[in-house]
Amino acid sequence: MQQQRPVERLLRLDVSVNSFRFINKTPEFQIGCRAECATTKELVSVEWVVYKSFEECQVFDTRIRASQAAQYMANIPFAPLYKTKTFFGQAMKPAFLATRQRDLQEYFNRVTSIPGITQFQTREGSLALADFLNVHARLLIEQQPLVDVSRTEDAPQLRSLTSNSNVSQPDEPSLGTPRSSDESDEVHLTEAQQQELQALIMERISEHAGADVLKAFQKRARRFGKAVDAIDVEGADFYSFMVESFGVEFCQWLVPSLATLLPDKRKRQALTAAVTSTSPQSIDAIASNRSMTRSLSRVRPASEAAIPSTRMTRPQRSRPQSANYTNAKEVMAKVRDLVGDDEERVEEFRFMTKELRARRTSAAEYSEYVVNTFGTDVSKDVLVSVAGAMADNQIQEDLHAASEHVHSLRGSIQRQRSYARRKSLDRLSQSSFKSQTSLRSRGYSIDEEEGYVPSHGSSGHTSVEEEPPQDNKILSRLRNQGAVNLMSFK
Questions:
Q1: Buried b (16+ CB within 10 A) or exposed e, 30-49
Q2: What pTM value is reported for the model?
Q3: Measured between alpha carbons, how far is 405 from 231 in angstroms, rounded to an integer?
Q4: Could you give the CA distance from residue 31 to residue 249 in angstroms, rounded to a whole number?
């Protein structure tokens, strides 16, 4: 934990968006902060960096537009969203992220130029900006008391009281959580902003911890929202659950967002009190307890640092995100061995698996594809491996059910092919019969068409010697031409 630097006044705050990085396939921007501060003896400069995703910047923009700086923010647009490029998957390209980095730099330059917004020791300072940049984790700013100018004799006493109160404050605000001040209660979001922020929270939790943890979080959030008695206890329990499920770094973004959404002032204060009363030692104890429970339940590689779900529909099949990536590599290696390193078939398998994960194809269709591609003998093993790499419990259940009926699934596919072949043969037989009937109706002899011309006598009657036999092989072959073709059809 970084130690706070005691200062009396913050003179200037420079914000620069330096670079970007990827954390679990999520781009984050490095925001450098440089604060010029004044102490009783000298001027000091304090520098630090924070990492924020573009979604976190959107949440900050929503909060600051609902604060007392709203009149200035009306003339400051947020960074462009580039919805079209994001939709077509270009949001992860370095060139696009460099453009977004420049847009965020211009945005923060205009925000920090608002008069008084960085004066965090006064009421003009923005709490949203201080929480976003984690200012109070680095600087211990002495608050200026509100003193009447006509009563200057009371100023030293009030200043000493303020200094004592600041010294007695713990270092817990370094967790990046909102302060329990009246200014945080004045943040009011519109209904559309609340819905947007709530959807963003659900999306980030699902990406960070999976669908099972999201369901458990929703259950705990509803219980905290319905709490009437012992709100402080419920708030502490809810915060402990979030730290255990998501970790401290993720809670630095999650807790201020939840505090903004809570309409009840008592519950906001309870959640904030739970944050400030949680010491770093207790957080370390929660993390160690979580790791001990995870090691006792199942031995895992040290690289798997994902937090397991507290509520699992099928514990033996539900896996954290890091295990999914490991299993996915194992499945792809197994498929490469089965197809003999045929890249075209490997890409086809990868495409079908992505379609299944996105629910653009059903588990039944995917199972038929696997059986048709790899055969009955190894299809069960492939389906079970793919099910283990899926985070969705419903897809896991469907694939396991399909793996138990691979042989019947293969039989149904063969029956469908046999039925399709019979239909094709019937159509071919009908076509051959119609062509022969058409030739006879036009006066053509099938024998003449094939080159067989019977000889006639002078009287116009065929002689007995020259009359073709009734069982002529050529005529028999021609009459049964359709049947011969059908029998030789492959």
A1: ebebebebeeeeeeeebebe
A2: 0.36
A3: 52
A4: 16
Alpha-carbon gap, residue 326 to 319, rounded angstroms? 11
**CATH 3.30.1520.10, applies to 5-145:** yes
Q: What letter would DSSP give residue 407?
A: H
- pLDDT reported for residue 169: 42
User: Is 42 in a helix, a strand, or coil?
Assistant: coil
Place of tokens 């590599």: 329
Please give the structure tokens belonging to residue 469. Answer: 């036999």
Looking at residue 405, what is its pLDDT?
A: 75
Task: Give the C-alpha separation, 109 to 368, whole Å.
Answer: 57
Helix ranges (DSSP H) in 4-154: 54-65, 70-73, 83-87, 94-112, 127-133
C-alpha–C-alpha distance, residues 451 and 292, integer Å: 92
C-alpha closest to that of 198 among 70, 54, 55: 55
Q: How confident is the chain (490 residues) per 10-residue block, as mean pLDDT?
A: 72 91 88 87 87 92 89 90 80 90 94 88 85 86 50 40 40 39 49 76 83 87 81 85 84 78 80 68 53 45 41 43 56 84 84 84 85 82 84 82 72 58 66 62 52 49 49 57 47
C-alpha dihedral (250, 32, 129, 177), degrees to nearest 10: 30
Q: How far apart (Å, rounded) are the C-alpha atoms in residues 336 and 376?
A: 17
**Per-domain boundaries in the chain:** 5-145, 194-297, 321-404
Angle at 245 between CA 241 and CA 248, to 5 degrees: 90
Residue (of 338, 334, 364) closest to 352 by Cα position: 364
What pLDDT sits at residue 279? 53
